[in-house]
Each structure stands twice: as structure tokens, then as C-alpha cells.
Design goal:
By secondary structure, this protein is α+β, with helices and mostly antiparallel strands. The chain folds into two domains: 118 residues, Probable inorganic polyphosphate/atp-NAD kinase, domain 1 (Rossmann fold, 3-Layer(aba) Sandwich), CATH 3.40.50.10330; 138 residues, Probable inorganic polyphosphate/atp-NAD kinase, domain 2 (Tumour Suppressor Smad4). 16% of the residues lie in helices and 41% in strands. The protein has five helices and 18 strands. It starts with 7 loop residues before the first strand and ends with a strand.
């Protein structure tokens, strides 16, 4: 089988996971035998490892590994295909024992490609850019170990929303809305929506409710006096401490990430991953 559409393939294996690495080696040889140019790295490599010509990325790991790779692929129009070595596997499509049949279907173009919104964020301190990047799941502003409120002055597309005193704020993509955001009382966004979920975490006196905004909305959040031990966290994987006066700006990047897999319904995906429970009629028992 010769495929020219996905000629350059990158395999990324979950860090320090022996079974994922062993299967990766097997897939690497298989791809090369099919005429593909394929290389393999362990997750956690520097961004330069991804700065090569790519048509397709195969990720052997769980949702965390998928998120780390997806952030590096934002805006590159390179589809990602996941083989699950994690627990939930919401972003992955195949189980290890079925890798070959699923990969053949990918390379033949038989699987669907989902284009998903990502987030762009930047941190400015004293007028100087301190940090920035992309997020696939969410950007979170939150308090540290002490049970004290974070005070954030929020502006949305240049219009002042107000001062929010809370444990934090979650800005989530549709992909990430089934994670921290929904657990904090935020909305579950339909897959493929060009939208961002805004979810306050335990807001003082419930001053601001969770909301859904258009994908290109610009959120400007300034840390105000009264905040102690405040942090920004990206996809639950990257983060740093914030200071009073820091400005965090977040906006959506439509169709920035591409995932490849079965074209199953949104609700079927939620059911098979345990996010929706059905009660069997007359049995009184719940099932996934």
C-alpha cells in the first residue's frame, strides 16, 4: 500500500511507558515498509522535534499525551490519530490491539477529521510580554494552596464585565468542556462548535454565572489587589504564578486542531467514555 497524502509521519509515545514504546517501534517499521517516511520520539521533547515536514501524527498515549502533542500542532493543519494507553481516552480513537486496522483506515482516508477550536493566550506584566502560547482544553486562572479569593477584573471584547472574586476562572474549548469546566458547573459544549465556555470557580455570592461566548471573543483579565497566590494553568500541564497587575488575554483560534477518528455521534462518544449514564428501563441499574 502506497500513500502520498500522509507520506511524512511522526509517532509520539507516552513518556516512560514501555508498552507504548514497544508498539511504537512495531508501527514505525510497518509504516516504513509501506513507503512512508516515519520517525518516532518520546513525548516531552522540545518543540524543535516537531518542526519538521509532517502530514500525519500518531500518538501512543492517553489524553494528556494527546493534549501535549496537539498544542504543538495548533495551526499546522496536521491531523492527529490517538492509540489509547491512558484511562479515559476521550481524544484517542484506537485501542492498542486494533492499531493496524485503524491505521490502515486512516491512511486510506476512510476516517473522519474533526477540526476543533483552540485557545491563544498571553501574559503581560508591566507592559512587557512574559509568556504566551496555545491551549487545546482550557486556560485556568486559580488560587494557590490557601483558601483565599482571586480578584480579577474582566473585560470581554473591550466591554467591562466586572470584578470577579472567586476561586478562579476557566476558559474552555468545546474539546475541554467535558473536563474541569463541566465539573465546576460549566456548560458541556457540542463538538465542533466555534465557542468558548466561561466558567467561574465558586464565585463569591454567585456574582457571575457560567456563559458561552463566540470563538473569537477576546477575554482580558487583570489580577487585582486582594489576590494572593494566583496561578495560570494551560491544559493542566503548563503554568506559572501570577502577580498583582498582571494581564492575561485569551481568545479562540477556530479550526486550529485536527483529530482523526470514527465519525460517531457526539453523544455516543460521551456514552462510551462514561460522561453520560443511561438507566436501564425497569432495572434500576445505570450503565455507560
Amino acid at each position: 500500500m502506497q500513500n502520498t497524502v500522509f507520506r511524512h509521519v511522526l509517532l509520539v509515545c507516552k513518556a516512560r511507558h514501555e508498552r507504548a514504546w514497544e508498539l511504537g517501534c512495531e508501527i514505525l517499521q510497518w509504516l516504513r515498509a509501506q513507503g512512508h517516511t516515519a520517525v518516532m520520539i518520546e513525548a516531552g521533547h522540545e518543540d524543535s522535534a516537531y518542526a519538521v515536514e509532517l502530514d500525519f501524527v500518531v500518538v501512543l498515549g492517553g489524553d494528556g499525551t494527546m493534549l501535549g502533542v496537539a498544542r504543538r500542532m495548533v495551526g499546522r493543519s496536521v491531523p492527529l490519530f490517538g492509540i489509547n494507553f491512558g484511562r479515559v481516552g476521550f481524544l484517542t480513537d484506537a485501542q492498542p490491539e486494533h492499531w493496524e486496522e485503524r491505521l490502515v483506515a486512516c491512511l486510506k482516508g476512510e476516517l473522519a477529521v474533526r477540526t476543533c477550536l483552540a485557545l491563544s493566550w498571553k501574559l503581560t506584566r508591566g507592559g512587557s510580554l512574559q509568556a504566551g502560547g496555545s491551549a487545546v482544553n482550557d486556560v485556568v486562572l486559580s488560587r494557590g494552596s490557601l483558601s483565599r479569593l482571586v480578584c480579577v477584573n474582566i473585560t470581554v471584547d473591550g466591554q467591562r464585565m466586572g470584578l470577579l472574586r472567586s476561586d478562579g476562572i476557566i476558559l474552555s474549548t468545546p474539546v475541554g468542556s467535558s473536563g474541569y469546566s463541566v465539573s465546576a458547573g460549566g456548560p458541556l459544549l457540542y463538538s465542533g462548535m466555534n465557542a468558548v465556555a466561561f466558567t467561574p470557580i465558586c464565585p463569591f455570592l454567585n456574582t457571575i454565572s457560567p456563559m458561552v461566548f463566540p470563538g473569537k471573543t477576546v477575554f482580558s483579565m487583570r489580577i487585582e489587589a486582594g489576590s494572593t497566590d494566583c496561578y495560570i494553568t494551560v491544559d493542566g500541564q503548563e503554568g506559572q504564578r501570577l502577580e498583582i497587575g498582571d494581564l492575561v488575554e485569551v481568545t479562540g483560534l477556530p479550526a486550529a486542531v485536527r483529530f482523526m477518528g470514527d465519525e460517531i455521534s457526539f453523544f455516543e462518544r460521551l456514552r462510551t467514555r462514561g460522561f453520560v449514564l443511561e438507566r436501564a428501563s425497569g432495572a434500576g441499574a445505570e450503565k455507560a
